[in-house]
Amino acid sequence: MTHQPQAKYRKDYTSPDFTISDLDLTFDLFDQETTVTAVSKVIKQKDNSTLTLDGEHMELAGIQIDGVEWSAYELTDTNLHIHDLPKEFELAIITKVNPSENTALEGLYKSGGAFCTQCEAEGFRRITYFLDRPDVLAKYTTTVIADKETNPYLLSNGNRVDSGDLDNGRHWVKWSDPHPKPSYLFALVAGQFDVLRDQFTTMSGRKVDLEIFVDQGNLDRAPHAMASLINAMKWDEERFGLEYDLDIYMIVAVDFFNMGAMENKGLNVFNSKYVLANDQTATDTDYLGIEAVIGHEYFHNWTGNRITCRDWFQLSLKEGLTVFRDQEFSSDLGSRAVNRINNVRIIRGPQFAEDASPMSHPIRPETVIEMNNFYTLTVYEKGSEVIRMIHTLLGEENFQKGMKLYVERHDGTAATCDDFVAAMEDASGVDLQQFRLWYSQSGTPQVKATTNYDQQNRTFTLQLTQATAATQDQPEKQALHIPMNVELYAQDGSIIPMVINDKPAGNILNFTQDEQSFVFENVSEKPVISLLREFSAPIKLHYDYSDEDLMFLMVKAQNEFACWDAGQNLIAKYLRQNIAAFQTDKELSLPQSVLDAFKGILLSETLEPAFISEMLTLPSQNEVAGWFKPVDVDAIAEALGFMKRAIAAELVEELTAMYHNLKQDQYSVEHDCIGKRSLRNTCLAYLAVTDEGEKLVTAQYQSANNMTDTMAAMSSANQAQLACRESLMKDFSDKWSHDGLVMDKWFMLQGTNPANNALEMIKQTMSHTAFSLKNPNRTRSLVGAFFGQNPVNFHKIDGSGYQFASEILIQLNESNPQVASRMIDPLLKYRQYDETRQVLIRTELEKLSKLENLAKDLYEKINKALEA
Ligand code: B3K
Ligand code: ZN
C-alpha cells in the first residue's frame, strides 16, 4: 500500500465549490483504448480559483478551458487540480481508458462482447475527471461511437436524439437526458443483443417504449422481466401516485456484474441473474427475485434518481426507502405473510450478525473509507425496517401524504435522511424527534418483556426494558422509539380489546424509555399476549413464553406472521436445549406435544400451502449461530439435523401424502402454484432423510418438468448426502455446462456440500469449464457459498477453510476488490468463535493486511476486524 487510505466523515460535508450544469460526453469505443471527451459547463460557487476533480485508473490526454489549451494543473493518483479559473467556463477534458483490462467491473468495462458501465458509487471517476459526488447534478448528452457490426446497439441515458454512419464501418448514436442527474447515474452500453419490446401507457397518457436487451439467443428468457416491469410501473402509479418521466425505459442484462442491478436513468444495467428466466432454467425463487429487483430499480426512478442523495452517508435515503417500496410491491402482488417472513429472516440472521460484527454501523454511517463497503444489509434491509416503522407509526394514509410532501419539496435535488423524516413529520403531525435516533445509532436493541395478570383488578401489565449493547463503532447507546405491535387473546381465541387509562389503546404501543410499563384494563381472564406482531421493530425480543402459549399462538393468533413467529420461537427453544444436550453428551429430544403442533400445521385445511411451508422450515444454521457466543458450529448442525430427522420420522405418513397430493402436471408461476411447489419441496427435504428419500428424490429429479423441482431434488440429495447425489450432479452438469447462469445453481450445491471432503471437491470444481474467478456470479456461487453457507466445513478446526479463503481473497484483491470485500465478511466475525478458531482466522487476516497492493475495500474491513 502506497498511501494510507483516508476516512471521510459525515460531519465534514460542505457544498461543492463549483457546480456543473451541463455535460457533453463523446465515447470513441475501442476494446483496449477508448477515448472519452467530456465538455462541461462549470460555474464557480465559492471564492476558490482551483477546481479539484476526481479521477483514477486512466490517462489524461488533454485539457482546455474555453477552447484554450490549459497547463495550470496538477495531477495526482486520485485528483486533477485545475488552477487560475474564471467564474464560469467551458472545460474540455480528454481521457483514455482500457475497458478490456478492467476486471474490477467499475467504470467502463467489457462484459463478454459488450461494453458497459457501472458508476455507483464512485466509478464515473474512472471514465473522466469530474466532480464525482451525488450533489452535483448536470444535464447529460452522450455520443457513442463504435464499430457497427460488433456493436449494433449504442445506448445511454435519456432519449435517442440523433445517429449516423462513419467511415471504417463505425457508427454513432447521440442521447440526451433532460433530467439533471449525478454522475453515478450515468450509463453507457454498446454491443450486440436480442431485444424484447413492449409499451406502457402511463396514467397521464405518456407512451413509454420498454426494451429489454439480452445476449443473442436468450429472448425466450426475457418475458418475465418485462411482465415484472409493467407490473412495477402500474403499481407505483396506483400505490404511490408516481409516474414514469421519459419516453423510453431500457434494461440490459449482462453476465459480468458486481451486484444485482443498477438504476441508471432510463437505462438500467442488470446482472443477468435478475433478468433471465424460463421454466427450464430458473426456479420460483429466481422468478420472485427478478420481480423484486426489476421493481426495485424501477422504483429508484423517483426514490433515488428524481430525488437523489446529498452525500453517500445518506445512502439509506434512497436504498432503505426503495427496499421498503419493493417489499410492498412483492407483498401486494404475492403473499404478504411469506414476504414478511423472508424479510424478517434476513434481519434476524445476517443483519443482526452485521450489527454484532466489526463492520457495525448505523443505517446512516458516520465514517467511510470505501463507499462500496456500505451497500450493506444495515443500510438496505434495516434501512427498510426504519421506513416500515415510520409507516407503522403514521399509517398508510399519512405515510403517503408524507411521500407527497417529500417529492414536492425535493424533486430534482439531492436530499438528506433528515429531509425525509421532516416531510413525514410535517405531513402527519406525528412527532419523530426521538425516532430519528434510528438513523444514528448502530447495533441491535435487546428488549425484555415480562407480564403480570392481576385478577382482582382485572389488569394485565406488560413491563418492557430496552438496552443496546455497545458496538465497535459506538460505545454509548440511548433509548429508541420502538413501535411495539401487540395483541391480547382470550383462551377461546377471541381478541381482548386493549384499554389503557380508560381509552382504547390500538395495537401499536410507543415504547420510548429504558423501562416502561403498559397496564391494560378490563381484562377479564389471564390473556395470551402476542408480542412484536409483524416484527414491528428490528429488535431482539426476550419473553419467557410457555410451550402452551406458543402452541396457542401458532393456531389462534389472528395474524399469519404471529403464527409463524410463535412456531419459530417453539423451534428455537428446543434447538437451544438440544445444542446444550449435544455439548454435554446428553440425548437429544423433542416432546410429542411439539411434534403434534407441527403435525397440526401440516394438516391444516385453512392455511395456504406457501405459509405452511414457511411454518415447517427450520431456521438457518447462520441464524442460529447468531444466538450464541462462542458459536459451536458442529453442535448447531447436529441439533438442526436431529430436529429435521425427528419431525420427518414422526410425520412421515402425512409428509408423504402431502407430497403426492401437491403434484402439479403443468408448470405455472402463479403465486398459488409457487406455494404448492414450495410446500411439496419442503416435504421432500424432510422425506429425504427417511428411508424413502433415495427413491423419492431420484424420481423427482427424473420426472421434473421445471427447474424448481429439479433443484429441490438436487438440494435434498445434497443436504441429506444421498447416494444418488453424485449421479444427479453429473447429469445436471452434462446438460448445462454451456450455461454459466444455470451452472451457478450447481456451483452453489458444491459450495454448500456438507460432505467431509467438500473443500477438496470445491478446489477441483474450480477447474470446471463453466467456472471463472473473473465472473462474480460464479465466484459467489461456489466460493462465496462455501465461506458463508457451509459453516461446518468452512470452520473446520484444521484451519483449511480459512487458508483457502485467504488464497482466494489474495487473487480477488487484485482482480476485483469489490467482490473480495463482500466475500471476506465471514472472516470478520472471528470473535464469535472459540479461541482456536479465532487464532486461525486472525492469522489469515494479518497475512492479508500485509499485502502490498491491498485495496481500500479490504483495508477498511480488515483493519476494523483487527482493531481490539
Ligand atoms: N444502487 C445499486 C447498487 C450500487 C452498488 C455500488 N457498489 C443497486 C440498487 O441498490 O438498486
Ligand atoms: Zn437500490
TrEMBL record:
Keywords, in A-Z order: Aminopeptidase, Coiled coil, Hydrolase, Metal-binding, Metalloprotease, Protease, Zinc
Signal peptide (residue range): none
EC numbers on record: 3.4.11.2
Catalytic activity: Release of an N-terminal amino acid, Xaa-|-Yaa- from a peptide, amide or arylamide. Xaa is preferably Ala, but may be most amino acids including Pro (slow action). When a terminal hydrophobic residue is followed by a prolyl residue, the two may be released as an intact Xaa-Pro dipeptide
Gene3D superfamilies xrefs: 2.60.40.1840, 3.30.2010.30, Neutral Protease Domain 2, Peptidase M1, alanyl aminopeptidase, C-terminal domain, tricorn interacting facor f3 domain
Location of the Peptidase M1 alanyl aminopeptidase Ig-like fold domain: 443-544
Pfam family, one: DUF3458_C
Chain ranges of the Peptidase M1 alanyl aminopeptidase C-terminal domain: 547-867
Stretches assigned to the Peptidase M1 membrane alanine aminopeptidase domain: 225-435
Cofactor: Zn(2+)
The organism's place on the tree of life at top rank: Bacteria
Domain Aminopeptidase N-like N-terminal span(s) in chain numbering: 47-185
SUPFAM superfamilies: Leukotriene A4 hydrolase N-terminal domain (SSF63737), Metalloproteases ('zincins'), catalytic domain (SSF55486)
Record flagged with keyword Iron-sulfur: no
Regions annotated as coiled coil: 841-868
UniProt GO MF annotations: aminopeptidase activity
Family designation: Belongs to the peptidase M1 family.
UniProt-recorded name of the protein: Aminopeptidase N
